[in-house]
Amino acid sequence: MNKLSLLSAYDVQQSVATYLRQKRKEKKLSRKALAERCLVPEATIKKFETTGQISLRQLLMIWQIVADLKPFHDLTKPAAKPMPKSIAEVLAND
Known about the structure:
The chain is mostly helical. The chain contains 6 helices and no strands. The protein has helices at 9-26, 31-38, 42-51, 56-66, 69-74, 87-92. α2 (31-38) packs across α4.
């Protein structure tokens, strides 16, 4: 953990679970239908949607059915321009 954050891992887990549940519903997929399409057991999808707990592999398998994987993949790429770490750096970049 590099930076001070008010977000916990639990908060992010819940946000991701909520996001993917909403995307599943937007696509009008039941848990069973999603399970058949992404090959993740329905019980695992239910557990994920209620607790936020899932393996990375299964998360990606669900994600690719209900949302575009590219933004998720782009998280692994370095930022085009590093964020300034101080006010002095901000002023120096003007």
